[in-house]
Amino acid sequence: MPHKSNTDKKNGKMYCNGTWDKVLCWPSVAAETTVFLPCPPLPGLDPTKEAFRKCGPGGRWENKNPGDYSLPKGYTNYTVCYTPEAYEVYLKFMAGKTAAERQSMKHIAAGTRTMEIVGLSISLVVSLISVFIFTYFRSLRCHRTRIHRNLFVSIIAQTIIRLVLYLDQYAARLKGGEVEGAAGSNSQTIFDTPVFCEALYALLEYTKTVQFMWMLIEGLFLHNMIAVSVFSGKPNYLIFYLLGWGSPIPVTVAWVITMVYKHQVKCWFSYTFTPFYWIIETPRVAVIAVNLMFLLNIIRVLITKLQKSQTNEPHVTKVRKAVKAAIILLPLLGITNFVVMTDPPSGVTAFGIWSFTTYFLVSFQGFFISLLYCFLNGEVQDTIRRHLCFKRPTRWDASHTSIRIYMYPPPKKQSQVQMTLRKHWGQFLQNRMVHSTSFRRGSRSFSIFTSITEVPNVNQRRQSAIPPPTGNAVPLLREIVARSDSRL
Fold this sequence. Notes:
Blueprint: E1 15-16, E2 19-20, E3 25-26, E4 29-30, E5 33-38, E6 50-55, H1 84-93, H2 99-136, H3 143-175, H4 196-226, H5 237-246, H6 248-262, H7 278-308, H8 315-327, H9 329-332, H10 348-363, H11 365-375, H12 378-391, E7 394-398, E8 401-405, H13 416-436, H14 444-453, H15 458-461, H16 474-486
Antiparallel strand pairs: 1-4, 2-3, 5-6, 7-8
InterPro entries: GPCR_2, GPCR_2-like_7TM, GPCR_2_extracell_dom_sf, GPCR_2_extracellular_dom, GPCR_2_secretin-like, GPCR_2_secretin-like_CS
Family: Belongs to the G-protein coupled receptor 2 family.
Main location: membrane
């Protein structure tokens, strides 16, 4: 459709109408004129530079291609506004692509961010539940779960900060403008809050490093417990705390000082693309490399132990079990984070596969760790069952007879025989209830691994010198207890 030319009635000169490009408001200018405006203060743009538009000879705004006036609103050139890091992103993912491909890239980025928010929310909830379970039940408190708790706390802290930043960015995109290669923003977002924005990102990177350090401690503790029996004693938690919570501090401080003096960009936008990011990324890569060596040695030890076991299974089956058990360790040791550190491809299809795979593993990492090492742990399940059973009256069926167990107040006086009978009768009923609610593991390889890492049952350590009654002794024991009650 042809566009009407704009002519000033007073002097008869051609001009382009004022227009709004969703970011800046451009005034009307004379034909064959280039107008400049300061770059908007958006993430990835330098406000000290100037964007520009061109008004053609016919009084119409020029489009991206010179001499093209098909679109009435024309084209604003913001490429001169980009910071070096943002411009690198633009060249890799936007430049040279068709409009449909650029739109697909935007849809992929938006879809992965939504998936990431959902995954982080789920990970936050299950991690909080895991910390509560390992803290509330005393029978689950041991060296291994103590390390698990610290790992979960670091995941919770990082997840909360990520959700705050992501939700703030989402709100900014809804209210602010959008420039290709940059994010929207407004005056009410964290991005426009000096110092606080930088401090929040510094805290985010600190918690990420803390998480990696506790994954290193997980790998070190598990490796020493399985492969190095000489170090299987009580761990030194002071060293663990210094390594897990203390060692990331000097690394983060060094990175923050470097960013303050070398990357003076608002809210440190695109800081992950700067060479200074390797100050904090290098220790994380080292942790993944060390944990990978731990994992390979653990696989070797498991295969050796399976070969020495008295079973008639073929060698391939034993190796398969060891590998399956080792795969369970991948999220706990943080080895899946290696995918995030790889350079994303520039192709639309490859970028989509990389994005969804990477951010799925990262955002749901807390969920998988909680699932494997808390909710699917046999001792955790048995502990919760016992807790629920003793919270309410319980039925037990023995010899086709139902007995209700209630928590009666203790009698004032009891003989030694009565106390002994009551003690072992209660232990016998408890053992029968736990046995009746036990379940069979679905995977033998998972049983091999959890048999090493499961929490020790405190109740099993408190065994009496008198053996539990057999099935034939149940009626006689019940009769003795009844007579003992009648004499009180």
